[in-house]
Amino acid sequence: MPTNLSARLCTLVLSLVLIAFALPAFAGPFEDAVAKFANDDYSDTEEAIGAVASSGNKLAFPIINALQDGRLMADPDSKKVYVTGTDGKSIDAATGEAVASVPDSASAVRLNNRLRRSVDAALGSLTLQSPDLGARLQAAQSVFKSHEETALDPVESALAKETNRSAKTALGEARAAILLFKSDATEVQKLEAVATIKARGDQEALALLSDIGTDQPASVAKAATSAIGSIQNSLAVWSTVQNAWYGLSLGSVLLLAAIGLAITFGVMGVINMAHGEMVMIGAYTTFVVQEVIRTRYPALFDYSLLIAVPLAFLVAGAIGVLIERSIIRFLYGRPLETLLATWGLSLVLQQAVRTMFGPTNREVGNPSWMSGAFDLGQITITYNRLWILVFTLAVFMILLAMLRYTALGLEMRAVTQNRRMAASMGIATSRVDALTFGLGSGIAGIAGVALSQIDNVSPNLGQSYIIDSFMVVVFGGVGNLWGTLVGAFTLGISNKFLEPVAGAVLGKIAILVLIILFIQKRPRGLFALKGRAVEA
Amino acid sequence: MTPHMLTRSLDRGAAIFLAIVAACGILIPLSNLLLPAGSFLQVPTYLVALWGKYVCYAILALSIDLIWGYCGILSLGHGAFFALGGYAMGMYLMRQIGTRGVYGNPILPDFMVFLNWQKLPWYWHGFDMFWFAALMVLFVPGLLAFCFGWLAFRSRVTGVYLSIITQAMTYALLLAFFRNDFGFGGNNGLTDFKDILGFNVQAEGTRAALFALSCLALIFSFLICRSVVSSKLGKVLIAIRDAESRSRFLGYRVESYKLFVFTLSACMAGVAGALYVPQVGIINPSEFAPGNSIEAVIWVAVGGRGTLVGAALGAIVVNYAKTFFTSGVLAPYWLFMLGALFILVTLLLPKGIVGTFNAWREASRERRPAAASAAAEDGVTEPKMAE
């Protein structure tokens, strides 16, 4: 656009000269445009906005910005216009010179809704070439939404200079939006525009395409309709993907909370109601580790979780061994009594933590590699949820391998299957019991490290997981780690798919009722161990 | 039940227990009403309400003992039946408020006006009549228990699994009753009651009468439980508790026996809840909390599982201790004590207080004649009683 460019250069030079000499008598187009704000006439104001925005003058942004905020003051008598800064100091809008005070006769330039749109579009075009990538993306986005024809030139010139890939895409979409609504754009341009907007494929693209009006050529209208259909389909797919992701994420949390229970309850048959408290102890271990790091070695903060994981395993595991040796071993074969004793234990542990750390939530921070999010197609994935999923699967695999390939794992399975036979083969069953319980508790502890990243670390942390964990283990089938995995993800995903339909609480109630009914059908869970033993 | 059968089914401990409850039920209200305030023997009104609460808990404990102690069904959701009975009574009391509520609506309770509801939900109809509410106190928990038990016992869900799904049941109800649009007052529950059957719920006379009624209900519940467990049905229940499969192989319909006793127990819990609400003055969803149900189980364990007197005694002792400790400087340590109680009772006192006492008494009774004859033979004056 040579004419445009030369005009812009011309104004630039002129205004520079004018600023240098401060000679308002040599009024250039920029000054004329600014003076129009003082006419108190909507159409003059609109012309002024367009002229100022396209002037390229460095005052253009402050002027339009002030206009939007109601800080642009115009004096109808002297035709002078002033920008009142947010700090209360004022400048002459035409020259940029500071003025002592705005005359009393000046009043704020008025806007109506149509003008507000022009202001938004003008601001958008003014920031299209901002050095800050975020501002550029935002500006392109605002042009995309407003699709003001006046923004076409700035968008195109910005597009020519843009080097960043995502900003380029955004500007291309903004351009397409303008062309689609521009009455004199060619049919080819419009069809291309529809294709570009279709490629964007989000809710806003859908809104824009549904909004093109009836005066479009038939081919464009047809293309738009088909684009709307395909965007709707892809949005439906993405929303399913999103629910599935949320479900996987919830499932991983459930699995993490339940996996230790799958060992103590599933493998040993011990009802450990204090399991949630082991999770809580793991979370508080993380808190203590972070606290030490914060005060002594702040540089290590990003590694705090890596330090907390083995520590939490050891702390919770040691407490687990202690519990097994002092309480649970006296109660083998009396599951209901075990349930009551461990419930009492959970009260003691909660109260102990409450006494030591106070009843309120404690602050556990996210290390930098766990904060933030990235976009995948139309959904946003947060790093902490992703890491928890990865971590959960890793813990699961390690546990599975441990049970399968280590000597302790072999002994555990032997004791589970036939305690007396294992004892006669020389396995120290009571030692294996203690270690198994310690292992289950230790895994609950490292679950606590992960859960401290997404939940409040308070003495009640464990309570909120205990019922869910039991549901997962019972649903999946006792004594079967794979069952626990399938159970956790089934519950997580079905919960998240029920949530949009029934709401969060009703969805949860529905899941509980379904599990109760499911247990009637399969009292031993999804993957029950087959056997011929008759109970009692 | 003929008087002869009644006396036969009562041993001395049960008779003493009933006599004490009856005496409390008569004397405490009389002392509260007739003696001048501040007198040494006068029981203050707040204590009457507090002890009334304990008596309701004792009925709940009896209902748990009936199924756990005699049939081996450990329900961790009995608080749900208690709360449902309480809600049924609470709904009656809400309807009695009438125009005296904050918004003065003659039909709708305050919270519904607040939520901008236009008319009464269908399930609130009829609760302005006491007989209907009283029927619902039995019917709603009974129906829930019947449906739940019908499903669970027929598919032979037993032991720990049953405990866990009863816990899931009360948890689901907790979540449901917390919802405002469920129509039971959300997390505030039902409160601010004015009168019951025309008597002011706050009045001393009403409180004394409610206390006496609670004692009466406890006596009745005790007698019902007693007649169940000492009948032939009770023997079958104990057989099911000790060897379920064997009972089934002998031809007993195990699930029918369990279903009967579970439903009966739920109705009793409902009655306990219904008596509890006017004395406490509020019913809210926290009564459904799984922790409450588990705590009720520990009352039974402390007092003595499988002894009816023990269950009632356990409820009163543990709750008295709770009130005593949570009101003083020891409050932060109460949960330690409660937790330790759970652990120590299951580890050291599996039969509970009354069960251990009975066992000790029987042992010493057996030993005494033997010791006496030994003394006569050897001429030793003072035989040493081992243990």
Summarize the structure in words.
- The complex is a heterodimer of chains A (536) and B (387).
- Chain A is mainly α and 536 residues long.
- Chain A is built from 21 helices and seven strands.
- The longest helix of chain A has 50 residues, at 218-267.
- The radius of gyration of chain A is 34 Å and the shape is elongated.
- Chain B has 387 residues and is an all-alpha fold.
Oligomer designation = heterodimer
What kind of sheet is the major sheet of chain A? 5 strands, antiparallel
Shape of chain B: globular
Task: Quickly give the structural class of chain B.
Answer: mainly alpha
- Main pleated-sheet profile of chain B: 2 strands, antiparallel
Whole-Å distance between the termini of chain B?
41 Å
Order of helices and strands of chain B: HHHHHHHEEEHHHHEHHHH
Counting helices, strands and paired strands, the structural category of chain A is: mainly alpha
Tell me the Rg of chain A in angstroms. 34 Å
**Which strand order does the major sheet of chain A show?**
4-3-2-1-5
Task: Please describe the structure with a list of short key phrases separated by commas or semicolons.
heterodimer; A: 536 residues; 5-stranded antiparallel β-sheet; two-stranded antiparallel sheet; 21 helices; 7 strands; elongated; B: 387 residues; mainly alpha; 2% strand; globular
Short description:
The complex is a heterodimer of chains A (536) and B (387). Chain A is 68% helix and 4% strand.
